[in-house]
Amino acid sequence: MSLKPQPVSVFGAPTDVGAGRRGASMGPEALRVAGLVEALVRRGVDAVDRGDVAGPRNPWQKPVDGYRHLDEVVAWNRAVMALASAELEAGRMPVMLGGDHCLAVGSIAAVARHCRATGKRLRVLWLDAHADFNTSAITPSGNVHGMPVACLCGLGPDALVHLGGPGPAISPSEVRQIGIRSVDAQEKRLVREHGLDIYDMRYIDEVGMKQVMEEALAGLDANTHLHVSFDVDVLDPAIAPGTGTRVPGGLDYREAQLMMEMIADAGGADSLDLVEVNPALDKRNRTARLAVDLVESLFGKSTLMRD
Ligand SMILES: NC(=[NH2+])NCCC[C@H](N)C(=O)O
Ligand SMILES: [Mn+2]
Ligand SMILES: [Mn+2]
């Protein structure tokens, strides 16, 4: 399958309301400074920057009933969902620059609704060190960026679970998680109960990224919408230090490249989240620059000679 020649709309959601450390709010600007839009245009993609969606400031409070800043998280996700929905309806691929990972509730709710309206199947690739499958009852932090997958699957507060309409946005069977290496004890139980398909670092070590991606991409067809939710903490902190919840033992450069190249080979993504870049923790914007490099590969940049 070759890359779909779809137009792209990039937009920012500059907030860290779902995170436990400040600074992911500066992610969109860091990715722009690293040349994301220009890189896509250079690849021949019709990419435009729609600017940022707006939302409440981060009040920086303690969790209440297991959630930190739930009202603010809901407000930001509504804004993300509205813009992502509009772009999908206009036939454009939404690329959401976070911001922390709680914002994937809004982007994926939009995508799921779009799939229902157009009769498409959905596959979500969740590239992350974390499963992000906590609930208010079991979260160790109250940070909603540790809960988006659970919320999308129907476990969470009504305002997030029903963001895109009645009922859960997705089913666990539509998700493939890659690069996982930090799951809280009770979260692990929940993940098992719901049968999430997880390609953890141990499995990647054992079988290699090639086989992992073949499995994670198996069963895609022309009628499948592929959403990629790229949390930069899936990368090893040695190459991507600019993120708030670093976990050692992540993907190295070649593994990450191969992952992106194989997604491109499978036809590319139909929507993308690029989240958890935290410039306050970065060195000379290298995490944003690496993310741009990898997104270029996702859009078909290849150094292949033997093709
Ligand atoms: N999107 C992220 N970086 N999530 C980190 C989550 C960390 C931890 N599991 C928590 O729930 O607090
Ligand atoms: Mn995440
Ligand atoms: Mn993460």
Structure description:
The chain is α/β, with parallel strands linked by helices and 307 residues long. The chain has a single domain (8-298), classed as Ureohydrolase domain (Arginase, Chain A, 3-Layer(aba) Sandwich). The chain is 35% helix and 16% strand. The chain has eleven helices and eight strands. The chain has helices spanning 27-33, 36-42, 70-89, 104-118, 148-152, 158-161, 185-193, 201-207, 209-216, 253-265, 286-298; strands at 8-13, 47-52, 93-98, 121-127, 175-180, 197-200, 224-231, 271-275. An eight-stranded parallel β-sheet has the order 2-1-3-8-7-4-5-6, with helices on both faces. The longest helix has 20 residues, at 70-89. The chain is globular, with a radius of gyration of 17 Å. It starts with 7 loop residues before the first strand and ends in a 9-residue tail after the last helix. The model has no long low-confidence stretch (mean pLDDT 97). The site of one manganese (II) ion has 6 residues, from loops.
